[in-house]
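stage 2 :: seqdesign
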């Protein structure tokens, strides 16, 4: 039986917090797929091809990790790629409540189990939206992004 997990997100941008979750989760699965969700209702600072290339570079040291993009429901992407598990990172109690509700729905409609990994304390305050805002004001965001 193949142990495949899908780690979905907009990853706009892919932060050191995301990379930390991926690095800690990669040994738990035969294959881990980072799935960049395309949401036409959201405006992205970097196009999906740019995000795909940046993430591939950041995880190139992890042989069982691949990067794709998808549109539509995440559970449909899980089915398409044979993932029985969805990986999610949790930074706070607020994240936990949101993820718990999604996990319940995903289990009911598609039989997908959600695996939650807590963010390391040093990354708990980092979010893509905060990094984007700092960048929009000209702040150096390099410490929040993988090299």
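stage 2 :: out
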């Amino acid at each position: 039986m193949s142990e495949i997990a899908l780690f979905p997100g907009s990853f706009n941008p892919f932060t050191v917090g995301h990379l930390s979750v991926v690095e800690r989760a990669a040994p738990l699965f035969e294959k881990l797929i980072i799935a960049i969700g395309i949401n036409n209702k959201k405006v992205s600072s970097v196009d999906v091809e740019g995000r795909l290339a940046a993430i591939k570079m950041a995880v190139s040291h992890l042989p069982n990790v691949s990067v794709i993009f998808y549109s539509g429901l995440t559970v449909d992407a899980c089915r398409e790629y044979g993932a029985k598990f969805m990986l999610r990172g949790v930074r706070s109690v607020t994240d936990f409540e949101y993820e718990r509700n999604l996990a319940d729905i995903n289990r009911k409609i598609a039989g997908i189990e959600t695996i939650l990994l807590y963010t390391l304390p040093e990354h708990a305050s980092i979010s893509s939206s905060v990094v984007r805002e700092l960048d929009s004001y000209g702040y150096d965001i390099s410490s929040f992004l993988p090299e």
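stage 3 :: structure notes
- The radius of gyration is 15 Å.
- The chain has five helices and five strands.
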